[in-house]
Structures are given as structure tokens and as C-alpha cells.
């Protein structure tokens, strides 16, 4: 990475110590040291403050680091997407296995608890769908490629886009069946 050497170069040109620069960009001296030694990378706000402190553009400051930054952002996006997916998976499993025990032991209060669990699960599902739309990933293969940090070639991408319509139909059918099963279970429990 070149940013560390750029920060050090600009800092020395202005005769600033690491402490002086740290005060200007509202971080610790250790953070400046880590940036200069390529142990960490400044966030966007810090880059803006650095460019102002050095009286230069962000482009001049980061020069060859644009690709590295893109990969770090992609990595962060993948981690957030994976974490959101894991949260959704746990909530979905809880939503599936809890309605019968909750209604059996807690009656109407159990139904209210289950409804709250479902509301949170649906909210997280919507967040997952927004992320999938943001990254243009819908099929299983696209999601796996994204989480592994890879992309699909043009032919594979076209094939996966062709599958999306079938997946939507299957998803609607599965949602209908799940709704029917839940309705039957509740009818038997309450009837």
C-alpha cells in the first residue's frame, strides 16, 4: 500500500509530528503510526481530514491504493452480508420451531411472542433482500460467489439471471405452503 508512505511524506513536508497530525484528524498518535506503517487504513472521514490537513486532494493522497480500498470495502460488505444472513437463519429456525411450544404453554401470550419473533424475522429478511439487490445477487450460486469474494463470468451471470424467474415462482409457492401449514397448526391449537 502506498498510502502509508504518502501520509508520512506529506506529514514531513509540513514538519508535523505524528501527535500534531493526530490532533488535526482527531485520532491517536498510535493510529497515525499504524497508517504510516500500513498496519491499518484510514476510514473515509479520516481520509477527508488528512487531505484537508495536507492541502491536497484525496486522489493525490491515495494514488495507487484505490484498488486496495475497493477490495477492503468489498470484504466489509461480504462480512456484513454474511452476518446478516446468519442472523436471519437463526431467526427463521426460531420462528419455525417456536409457535407450537409457545401457544401450548403460553396460549395467547405465546402467540404474541411468536408474532414479535416473526416481525423481527421479516425485518431482517427485508434487510437481506435489500443487500442482495444492492449487490445484484439473487441465486444461490451468485450468493456463494459473492461471499467467497469471487465474481461470475458473463456466461455464468447470464445463466443465473435466467434462473431468477423460476426461483421467484418457487419462493412464492413455498411461502404459500408454509403459510398454509402455520394456519392449520394454529387452527388445531385454537380449535
Please explain how this structure is put together:
- By secondary structure, the chain is mostly helical.
- The chain is built from 9 helices and no strands.
- α2 (18-25) packs across α3 (29-36) and α6 runs antiparallel to α7 (99-134).
- It starts with a helix and ends with a helix.
- The model has no long low-confidence stretch (mean pLDDT 85).
N- to C-terminal distance: 67 Å
Number of strands: 0
Largest sheet: none
Helical content class: over 70%
Oligomer: single chain
Going by helix content, strand content and strand pairing, the class is mainly alpha
Order of helices and strands: HHHHHHHHH
Which segments are poorly predicted (pLDDT under 50) over 5 or more consecutive residues?
Answer: none
Total helices: the number is 9
Rg value? 25 Å
Shape: elongated
Which tags fit this structure?
mainly alpha, 191 residues
Q: Brief overview, please?
A:
The chain has 191 residues and is mainly alpha-helical.
Draw up the topology in text.
Blueprint: H1 3-13, H2 18-25, H3 29-36, H4 44-54, H5 58-62, H6 66-97, H7 99-134, H8 140-147, H9 154-190
